[in-house]
Write a structure and sequence with these properties.
The chain is an alpha/beta fold. About 35% of the residues lie in helices and about 20% in strands. Strand 15 (about 370-375), helix 12 (about 380-385) and strand 16 (about 390-400) form a beta-alpha-beta unit.
Length: about 500
């Protein structure tokens, strides 16, 4: 069996093949009995189904991966990277198909989905570059004695990824892990398992040996089985903070290394000297992109002093955003209900709704919330301090940059923070004091480009290091130190 091409070239509803496991180079049905519909959020219609796996399926994937990894790790790193080169070419050729598939199962606008595929390819390209970056270090440390460091594979590793970036987030992890010589087991989100079916096909077509990459579909039982399995040596996770914290604790308790990225409540700080046009365009793009369903979306605007002219420009630009055309749908009806509940509680708590996106529809059966702007919010209000994951911006008015930084620093998350200003001094102060791992100056979505690594601080990350770039490669490897001596030296030291 092969996974068919996805044929859609418009937003018109299109069905796709059901999600299956990919183990040992073969497509197999999960052994569980629970099933779930994969629903196109734009139409609210089922485009495929996914059956959930059990711990036995996880064990089968790990055993197949262990057998394959024994040979895979013996290949020179450059040969392993060549597989990624070929995968990159296939992804480039199939970019539109992959983009439409992401759009249909996740709900993103086509241009947003295409941007995700492009970023995924960029992550793949970084993996291709690792043979030129990961050379070991050698030094003669004493007469006739050399020490060498190499980066060695861990064995079988695993990744658990969320619904909001079904292709990009897996490729935050897979390239570094594979080039390092590991075998990789991926659990995609049960809400969006379809794009990774095509990813498995692409890796196989690129020449990846059977068993080196596995897909295991499912929900909580699969997550727990991956965290518990003694054959999994490292685990990467991206999702909400409560789950990230639980997965990190469970995986670490078994002795495996774990890096788990959680949620966010990102702050934008706007001062009166900010460029109005740049700021308004950038802020709206930040909190509405992907319908706000991304951990880098800025959901809090800290208005420092008199910036009413900038807020007015933000609202005016946001009013022009049309659901369905400029704004994609929300992933589930339950998420719509949660987002609208946050909006509904604002006025009774003393806030003001400048722009209300509730009740807007682009299709009768889809999951929609329009662009929403909330003003005169307090830092303790639910919409201003909890992760909403929707196209909602909360404005908190403060008298100074010091007051803004106090609010930003007081939030438990630490993913991203940006400032809009034409003052170098203000920019430096915010960058120095922000409690966030990714920061921007006049950039509302400060996602690092490769080779710079992605990762937040505080309750946005559990574990050491970042998940992409060089930190990512080091996470999936362990260092071997080799000390060598071949002859007795006349001037001996304690090493001789």
């Amino acid at each position: 069996m092969t996974i068919p091409k996805f044929t859609a070239t418009t937003y018109d509803f299109t069905e796709f093949t059901n999600a299956r496991n990919y183990i040992g180079g073969a497509w197999v049905d999960p052994s569980g009995t629970e099933t779930m519909n994969v629903v196109n959020p734009r139409h609210g219609k089922t485009m495929a189904t996914v059956r959930f796996s059990t711990a036995a399926d996880v064990d089968a994937a790990v055993k197949a991966a262990e057998a394959a990894q024994a040979e895979w790790k013996l290949l020179p790193m450059r040969d392993r990277a060549h597989v990624l080169y070929r995968a990159r070419e296939l992804m480039m050729k199939d970019m539109d198909e992959l983009s439409w598939l992401v759009s249909h199962e996740n709900g993103k606008l086509f241009d947003e989905a295409k941007a995700e595929v492009a970023k995924a390819i960029e992550c793949l390209e970084y993996g291709c570059s690792l043979p030129n970056l990961a050379a070991g270090e050698t030094l003669e440390v004493s007469r006739g004695v050399t020490c060498e460091t190499t980066h060695e594979a861990l064995g079988v590793v695993a990744g658990i990824v969320p619904f909001n970036f079904p292709l990009m987030v897996p490729l935050w992890m897979i390239p570094q892990a594979l080039v390092a010589g590991n075998a990789f087991v991926l659990k995609p989100s049960e809400r969006v398992p379809l794009t990774t079916l095509r990813l498995a096909e692409i890796l196989t077509q690129a020449g990846l040996p059977k068993g080196v990459f596995s897909l295991v579909q499912g929900g909580r039982a699969v997550v727990e089985a991956l965290a518990d399995h003694p054959g999994i040596k490292a685990l990467g996770f991206v999702g909400s903070t409560p789950v990230a914290k639980a997965v990190y604790g469970r995986a670490s308790a078994t002795g495996k290394r774990a890096l788990c990225l959680g949620g966010a409540k990102n702050h934008l700080i706007v001062v009166p000297d900010a460029d109005v046009g740049l700021t308004a365009e950038n802020i709206v793009a930040s909190f509405t992109g992907c319908a706000g369903q991304r951990c880098m979306a800025a959901s809090v605007l800290m208005a420092v002093g008199n910036v009413d002219h900038i807020i007015a420009a933000v609202v005016e630009r946001a009013k022009k955003m049309e659901v369905g055309k400029d704004l994609g749908p929300i992933i589930t009806p339950a998420s719509v209900e949660r987002i609208t509940k946050y909006i509904g509680g604002v006025e009774k708590d003393g806030g003001k709704i400048l722009l209300d996106g509730r009740g807007q529809k682009a299709t009768a059966g889809g999951n929609w919330v329009g662009v929403t702007v909330l003003d005169h919010m307090k830092p303790t209000m639910a919409a201003a301090c909890e992760e909403i994951f929707g196209p909602v911006l909360s404005i908190i008015r403060v008298p100074s940059v010091d007051a803004a930084m106090k609010v930003e620093n007081g939030n438990p998350f630490g993913n991203a923070c940006s400032v809009y200003t034409t003052s170098g001094h203000v920019a430096r102060e915010v960058m120095r004091r922000a409690e966030a791992g990714m920061c921007g100056v006049n950039v509302g979505v400060p996602v690092p480009r490769e080779p710079f690594s992605f990762g937040g601080w505080n309750d946005s990350r559990f574990g050491q290091g970042d998940i992409t770039g060089w930190d990512g490669f080091r996470f999936w490897t362990r260092t071997r130190k080799v000390t060598t001596k071949w002859a007795l030296q006349k001037d001996t030291t304690w090493m001789g």
